[in-house]
User: Fold these one by one.
Assistant:
Number 1:
Amino acid sequence: MQLIIRDLLPLYFDKDKTRLSDIWGKNIAFNKGERIKIVAPSGSGKTSLIHFLYGMRKEYSGSIGYDDKSIAGFSAEDFATYRKDHISVVFQDLRLFPEQTVMQNLEIKRQLNPYHPKEKITEMAQRLGIGDKLSSRSRICSYGEQQRVAIIRSLLQPFDILLLDEPFSHLDNNNSEKAMTLMLEEAALRNATIIFADLERIDYYPYTQLYHL
Amino acid sequence: MAVSFQPIRPLLQTGTNTVSRWFSYIGLGIGVLLLLCSIQMYVNIQQLLKEGSIRKNGFDFVSITKSVTNQTMGQPEKNLFHQPDIDELKSQPFIDGVAPLVPNDFRVKLSAGDVLPFSTDMFLETLENDFIDTIPPSFTWREGQPSIPIILSSDFFEIYNVFAPGQGLPQVSKETAMGIPVQITAEGNGRQEIFYAKIVAFSDRVNSVLVPKAFLDWANKSFGTKKYVEASRLFIKVKDANNPDLLRFLDSKNYKLNKDKTLLGRNKMVIQGIFTGLGIFGLLVVLLALMLFSFYLQLVIARSKDSLHLLLMLGYSPSWLGRNVSRRFIPVYISIIVVTLAVVQLMQWSFHHFVMYDRPELSSFIHWGVIATGVVLVALSMVTNYRLVRRMLGRLGEAG
């Protein structure tokens, strides 16, 4: 699946933002299997971009299209289908169900369109070091643990594009690297595009394209 | 694999509004009960007063005669209605139709054959079918047909049963009377012919012995002497038999109105009006309860807003969520309707048994229309609920 943005700019940004940005106000196509790195300092609109691409917010000018289908014409049902089958995301603010256990949080996502069997949840959790947290309520997990839950959750469905919004903000280098390796493996399995937005470059992400926001 | 709602259910916060939820349930129950009861009573009244009604299609049918006074006594032509009289009546704005009760112009003798030792001179009349309250399909006659269908006045029939024992005759039920073939001998113009007649219906409206118009026209021509038979009684069709203009007009012409038969029709109208009012009130209560219920539903959704929003962000379809959230209330609706139907059934049985002493016109069971209304109510509530939840989820999905 190809992701195409044309002349994209948040409504609350000035036009001159486009001068210095590789993304805002430009026409770009992200192709299948590419690993995109978007480096963006605070306040440059990183989270806005991810939310626009995921169809959560509409305060922008320009257009976003998946395989030439503009998301401006998507209904709530269309978005549901895309989020279930084609696009996965790790939110910066994690967004877990606080009163549910880690396992329940993951199962709620997995049952929608299972790419992996249920046993894979345990395996992934163990790989990322939260194997013993599966039956804990997510609200009592640390931010670092919650972030790993959010990462695993994004890998339980089929996807063509994986959107990452500062996915390692609460993780140390060692854990970040483990999580990155897992995400790269899963993306490779699906021949999917990764769009990874972060404050700075990281060494263990072998990007194919680099953009500054 | 089908997506299960089970892990989603705990995300909906419903627990703390128990009181308001039960208020909605009870309100809905009372409203539905009022509505269904009114429908059932409406049906009961229809069935009870079906026989006694002189109203048909919203009209009163009443008979008028010319008042017989000392001056007109013995001068039949002065007590008969002539064509100009009928035309004048027809032209009045408050009269919607006029039909003469045409009598026989020959001698008629009735006997019960071998069944009852009973024979009497009698009269026959005919009236346009539109003016008769009970017309069975068999009420027709064609030349050459040996049997004649008769519609007998219920009052005449009762009078017979009152006098029968004194005359050494047996009392008979309506059903039996309809099974007895009687012989009618028509005599006049030097001819005599015997017909077999059978009572096919009883009329509460027309105090007469009615035969099909085709028969009497033929018989008057065959056995009668007059060219043209005039009626002493007319039936008029009016919107309201108590219309002052009508009464004033009839008084001025010295016509007498046979009015007691309109009373039952009036009573039925009043009772029906009361139950229609009660039904409308019930409908309003149902509407109010449904509104209360929708507020409760909105509260549930507002309280679970964050969870529902996250589910939508994870890729749950709004229509799937809407269907499942509103489906949770189906058992509630069905229970309310089933309990209400059971109560209405119990009330109907008690009403039939204890108040109406098992009268055959009524049934101990509720009318199918009441059950159908219940089913329609369940369907309606489910559809409105689904649409409400779906709309609210749609709004949630648009918010970032």
Note: Residues 60-238 of chain B form one domain.
Number 2:
Amino acid sequence: MTLAQKGRWTTGVGLVLLAAVYVRALAFTPVERLQGAAQKIYYLHVPAAIWTETAMVLVGVASIFFLFLKDSRLDSFAAASAEVGTAFATIMLTTGPIWGKPIWGTWWTWDARLTSTLFLFFLYIGYLLLRGAVLDPGVRARYSAVLGICGLCLVPFIHFSVYLFRTLHPMPIILKPSSPSLPGPMLATWLFSVAVFTILYVGFVMQRYALARAREGAQHV
Amino acid sequence: MSEAVPQNAGYMVAAYIIAAVILVTYAISLFRRTRGL
């Protein structure tokens, strides 16, 4: 079985499990008393945000190693992770405002967390545009690596922005030094969703990486 | 006296539909692009 086929199977399993997340979140997870049903957006928004940031961290780490080792497989992985990260960033940036409207009373506010997250999305878009615009593979890989490292530097700022600035965005209720503030059934649904988003990330990247390697091979023929 | 739970399920449904559309569309895009690999 090829890597692309393994990726397709992994993605298929991920999509089936995503349906199970939907059933569990919508039908078997209690409604939060103060926020109502809109709180359930959390089970999609936060896993998508985690993988948006993690994907960019992996792009940055692969880019650093690429600049030292000049191994094109690292560049292919960075390209794959960036494209998948863009898909997750789109989910994060659409579900967030949909939650914000009923809870905050506004779709968007220019606070530190939201603005820096939007900047990360534009960085993803810029990364993909750069890869499409530069024809020479060596130059493209080098320029992309520099942009990927910039993205890596941005991620800690985004994560800690809620501590560094006064923001409307809520503080972390799970990924914090003390124990999670979420009740058991809600925490179980959230962990299930994070696991499924992880499977989807792996499946997507396997396919996208296989595609990048095939393109790389075609350029050398 | 307990407050009523806010009625905002429409926002939740919209978010869940949009997330599913993005993920399934991207999965189909990858399926098509990697066909034959």
Note: The helical segments of chain A are 3-27, 42-69, 72-104, 112-133, 137-164, 184-219.
Number 3:
Amino acid sequence: MEEEVKGKGVSRRDFLKGLGGGAIGTAVISTGLLDPGKVEAYPTESIGTSRGKSAVNLKVNGKAYRLEVEHRETLAEALRDQLGFTGTKIGCDRGECGACTVVINGRNIYSCSQLAVWMQGKEILTIEGLARGEKLDPLQEAFIEGDGPQCGFCTSGQIMSGKALLMRNSNPTEAHVKKELSGNLCRCGNYNREVAAVLAAAAKGR
Amino acid sequence: MAQQQFSVVGKKTPRIDAYERVTGQAQYAGDYQLPNMLYARVLRSPYPHAKIVSIDASKAEKLPGVKAVIHHQNSQVPWASGGLTQKRMIFNNPVRYVGDAVAAVAATDRHIAEDALSLIEVKYEKLPHVLDANEALKPDAPKIYPKGNLSVGDGRVSAPITEQWGDLEKGFKEADKIFEDTYISKHVNNAQLERRASLAKWDGGKLTVWASTQGVSNTRTDIAKDLGLPLSKVRVICKYMGGGFGNKNQAQDYDLMTAVLARVTGQPVKLEFTREDDFIGMHGRWASEQRYKVGVKNDGTITAVDFYGVTNMGAYRKQTGDLGGCDFYQIPNFKKVVNPTHTNTVIGANYRAPSYPESVFGFASMLDQIAYELGVNPYDLFLRNRARLSKGKIPFTSNAQEECIIEGAKRIGWKEKWHKPGAAPGPKKHGIGMALGGYPFRLGLGAATIRVNPDGTAHVLVGVVDIGTGAKSTMAIVAAEALGIPLSQIQLTNGDTDVTPFSIGESGSRTTSFTAPAVIAAAEDVRKQIFSIAAPELKAKAEDLDLKDGIVFVKSDPAQKLPLNKALRRVESELIGRATTNPTWKGVDGKSFAAHFAEVEVDIFTGQVRITRYVAAHDSGTIINRLAAESQMKGGVVQGIGMALTEELLTDRPTAIPINPNYRDAKIPTHLEVPEVEVIFIEPYDPYGPFGGKSVGEPPITPAVATVANAIFNATGKRIKEIPITPDKILRAVQV
């Protein structure tokens, strides 16, 4: 799963020189000029930043990966962009909404607020890792039966926080659930449903 | 058809796409990745009003990885739906608010695109600005547009917005008492969890956009118009959508920017908003000031209402700016004047039930106060003034508002729990409040195609996007009911303009009432085909056949029957039912109604409000899917609670910079603030609605703000006339 090495090939500067310089700055892009024949397509190239990259070894949903990550790349970005686990959503990218919640070593964590490079040796569970083959996790079943998702964008995070709670406490009270999920915002306002689903899953698991 | 005769409609049905939503498989616009895809970011104005003297993007363009920088000098693309009274471009000069888009960058990686923004050198010449709508209407205010700041356009965006009936003077003469007061609401953001994202790709001359939108059809129309492309050359896809609540209607500037960037780079481009972009770069609910003059009899009967409102639309007019809080009462003599006004602030436009919750807050607070002044129980005053006729004279298609009031009050125990305002013991004072709301129910253009396969399964194609309302499931349920085959046999494809038929757009609580009639008609169309094929098999006339639960049978002799797959065994391809419907009515008006009730506990030492109980009674006609509809009601209440107690986009006065464009500081409700919302459905069968259903999505937010505000009044005996009702306002009120 290693990313291609970036920073090679034609540089932006060389490319612009080749065009006579300032092509973008002077090109007039207006409605009338959107005719496909008239606009130069830029050649495909891959130019990355020269900023630091490191390799990390981590486990996601039970499988080991070695990733080449930029130092500023967050875990949420690495999961989504490099590994394709797009069930982990990014709602705010600043540690407020919880859409990116994953379970790391048994705790619910905002993956937007963890750098990927910190994940050396960590075990990460995402929404994609909950089902066992065709068999859904009781939390997922409860979210389906109890209409847990409305738009569904916060749902992965709500479920992962619920999962972290149930991994530690199989018999939580409503107050426990609300507290554990309090870092997971739901703008559809489906809080009643989400709490009820976690409680239903707990009851099922007993 | 009476309710008990339904086989699928009205049940608690889990969403047909719930599996995808709980397993992470649902793909939202931002989840798609294409080979060679670039990432884009937007640079925004730091000034509320300024002329751009120059833009130098050369340093940004030289940053390795940057592929294109577009701005007003090299990309003059109109954004028609972004400004309805003044021409708006995707990049404007002058810029008219802090957050107005100045440039966009496409780069090989989102961080490089972000880095590049800081390398774009823009020289601004600051212009005078105005933030307050009342100030903006004064003759000497800085002019945002040459003709002034009142946002005058045509039709639904005219100004001032006026409405009048009866005889105001006579109404006030008949009044025993006249009350006047002013209420204020602030700008709040829709704050949907999914940040805006748009992915554009050109294949030759054809543009495909994976959009996060509340309407693929109108997004396609807008993009085609703004970019000068034929409709056939634009494809818009939205399969899953992470919320919008009114701020993802139509095509938005970022869709257009993405298309332009993809065009000039020759690569697919994904533009992502940051959360801050989302708070300031699109729009929220318009702030308002509302002045009421209300004439009443001593028993609380309203005789006249004279209402003047000012709404702050920000720098561009995207929506009406109306205020509709008086719509839920019987007002014999009425006058309304609302001035939608431009200021140099973030745009005010659609957010769930635009024009309602803020003005229901104002008017229902006003009525609650009048009840207090007259010594009347608010329950009696609300019940007495309930709406019998629309606009004072037009009958409603159906109306169970009275039952909503009565049943909701019973459920919460109004009679036992109501006490004189401020009379409960402290310091944590109990309060109970109520308010009336609802939302228009309208009919209009819808389209659907249904393909029935020879094995008895069916494929429904509709253009609707499921923005979280459960619209996909609703359409599948309606199809199953109308076809007479089990829901499990229905497959549904939605939200793709190359594949699915037209949809009006999933806003205004109109998805069901516009598109479901087309689904029903398409089902009728294909049923006729089924019956003519099955008739010889069953030795009956086609018109004597019926289809239920996947069985074709003779109506007069149900023992004569065939499973659908047997009936169609000679069909090799498929049967296709199609319909475009545009039902109308005459001499009637449609509305869904709601009566909400809340109990609160107000700590008069800290100013904190805790909502301890909430009852939402709704008349939305027949409920198609009880499970999803109940979730909608709960969710609307939660958003209303946020508006009532905590949410406001704050602006730093000297710089005009929004200072809390993020979840934490904008204070949207969390799990901890939300009570169990008890939902009651009163279900009159509406003769015009599909299977008797009316509007669902928007009604629940409308009375919620006022309900909480009135409960706070009942607890404290102090009327707070500005939302959000934050602890500081409560403390100031109770300590006076």
Note: The CA atoms of residues 56 and 120 of chain A lie 5 Å apart.
Number 4:
Amino acid sequence: MEWEPVIGLEIHAQLSTKSKIFSGAATAYGAEPNTQACAIDLGMPGVLPVLNKEAVRMAVKFGLAVGASIAPRSVFARKNYFYPDLPKGYQISQYELPIVGKGSIVIELDDGVTKTVGITRAHLEEDAGKSLHEDFHGMTGIDLNRAGTPLLEIVSEPDMRSAKEAVAYMKRIHSLVRYLEICDGNMQEGSFRCDANVSVRPKGQEKFGTRAELKNINSFRFVERAILHEIERQIELIENGGKVMQETRLYDPDKDETRSMRSKEEAMDYRYFPDPDLLPVELDAAFISGVKATLPELPDQKKERFVAQYGLSMYDAGVLTATREMANFFEQVSDVCKAPKLAANWVMGDLSGLLNKNNLDVTHSPVSATMLGGMIARIVDNTISGKIAKTVFEAMWAGEGDADTVIKAKGLVQVTDTGAIEKIIDEIMATNPEQLAQYRSGKDKLFGFFVGQVMKASQGKANPAQLNELLQKKLKG
Amino acid sequence: MHTLSLAELSAGLKAKKFSSGELTRAYLQRIAKLDKQLNAYVTVAEERALKQAHAADARIAKSQAAALTGVPLAQKDIFCTNGVKTTCGSKMLANFIAPYSATVVQRCDDAGMVMLGKTNMDEFAMGSSNETSYFGPVRNPYDLNAVPGGSSGGSAAAVAARLAPVATGTDTGGSIRQPAALCNLTGLKPTYGRVSRYGMIAFASSLDQGGPMARSAEDVALMMNVIAGFDSKDSTSVDTPVPDYTAGLTKSLAGLRIGIPKEFFGQGLDSKVEQVIRDALKQYEQLGAKIKEISLPNSGLSVPTYYVVAPAECSSNLSRFDGVRYGYRCEQPVDLVDLYKRSRGEGFGAEVKRRIMIGTYALSSGYYDAYYLKAQKLRRLISDDFKNAYKEVDVIMGPTSPTVAFNLGEKTDDPVTMYLSDIYTIAVNLAGIPGMSIPVGFVGQRPVGLQLMGNYFDEARLLNIAHQYQQATDWHLRAPKGFE
């Protein structure tokens, strides 16, 4: 039987506010344990939460970017459960009335096919602290620095049909929240993480199968692997006459497997109810349009503009707008050299190649946009050839200065003086009489031989177009 | 000095008839001498008090005193006080010292008032007799066999016995008004949101409200001037202007429209208490008020509604007391579940556990709609009753409590009977309106309180109505024997 996976994701994006969602404590990552937790984060008796307006603004920004309805009135609720890193014994979240309603986002797969994925809702909540099980010899340490950090939980519709689609969706949301500057997207530090709901059904069947929820997926690679594994596990289970149980499963990246955490019967009753310490969040049209005015150009808009303004292909525009940083870099390069297509080729080709090889982000490129643009300008004005440019680029990467410095230091200026090129051609013709005779008797293939010889004699600096033209004229005799 | 009103104390301090140091020492001596009979104080903060008194005297000397600078008070032990134990009447917090002060405490400190100590209370404010306190029951100064009421029983007993000129209380279902009634005091539960809840240990967040307990309406008004007002640390506090609560005290009551809800005079009301209440209403007629019988048709639903909403909120609010970060932790826990079970099982008393269980049940999946959601709907109906009533009357009056103070131990085995002692006070909390209790007479030696219920943010008018009655009568001046 052919099986169809059905996948929905719940993404937790940590909002990059300076202070926590309900207290004034800082949110910076990596501080000494419990140094960024105030009385409110510690859940001390009598303290009260006060909502951080910036977190609301960021949530609204996201909602507007995915075309979602923004709730004029949303409510914070308490999710009650006991855990040592949950100081109050409840998490303040949103339940029945989230701040962001239904929206959608378009994802693009490797083969260029696009698909719309529905977003059910997005809501604000606070993060819990961390339990540290190592280094305490039979005891558990609690670090509450992260407690109260604002999160936006983005819940998708079960619209994805493969692990690849799930990854494409997660990447799209990742790119978007970084475009919007509401989340730093740092997956290693846990600023962007997801849970996946996975089920399978016979192809053609409308009814969903029983789903399992996969927790603890913190990289694009793990999302794909965890989902693939879970799909395989479920299909195997059903084909062997078993039944998928509704349960929560934990993905273990070390063992590359998922294992059961708790079944539906063991599922917690969170006893949600509206938090009486917080008023409903009421947003008026003026606030929402104020946030709308701060929206940056979004990836899709940017992509379309790149096609229209720079004459790029859809594919190139898509690659260049994948991140805001890459897009900015390209635009700066293009601005300097006034040759957008060349700029796109260099950014996507040699630059991205070296960045990937060295595991660097474009913002940390040793060759700045101004330097790359300057070099391309030298190609455009015929100072160097495209081939020589590769040498120049490598030298710039190695820190030997900008293009003009390198060209000068290495004597890489292109020879465009007709007389000088003709002189070399004459010499080559004179030293290769046999080949000349063969060429003139109809062996056209030898043209390449002469190009190579002349180029070699000019140390690669002869202008290729001029060389071609002059050589053809001279060889004819 | 211990018989002087706040206004007299303020004037005496400014005229340098006595210093705050002398006044404070006098109160501390009275507490040392008399509180053994009452158990009103959990903590006497002698050193801190004398330091504050000293600072107050310096402020007075420099003519920088505010109205109540140098005047002592007692804080209910539910308000966190930086550096002084805050127990909330519980074993759970028996040794808890907060690293911050409640806004109410901070405002009193900033005003230059002197905190004598922290007063006893029902555990986590859950109780109507002060018998659920981990630190033992409090006795009623008017009759040592009787309870002082609760949950602010320590504050009530301290002020009634002249062991503090004024005290703070908190009122979730009557915890200021009922003990005020039972101890012959004037107590005000302000409009929900009028006084900050920051640093006030939460019982039921949507109902809790702090307020003053004193011997007269004028004293309450002076205290309200100190503690009322918007606080950015409490999202539910309301940002509306705070009047001078003493400004309108002397207004005439001619033409005042008083509504008497017939539901407050039915079965369950002690006939002797009723007689005292009716006499008080006659007094109001003599002051020019017009009495009108009204109906609050949903008031019978108050107790069941309250006993869903309050336990539901408390079950969540008290989750933070888990033995992990502060407060009581059981000996030698074998694992996490054992740590939770025994820390909470041993740290909380029976009434607290009962309410946590009721609340957990009411919020459980499958029961939420039938209990919590239904209770919220009833709450709106109860509020609407009041809103409708205030279209025809200015103030609503009735008994604060169906009986006078009962004997210690009389109701401890029967929670439902105990819950019914708040039958007249609970609706006010559910609606969020301000309510007061004022002394209007005695049955035997036990006091009777008249309840005044006003419209939202109408505290100044309630104080005016109370003050005018106190100008015409002297019930509020009658001190308990042995504590004059």
Note: Chain A has three domains: 3-290, 299-410, 418-476.
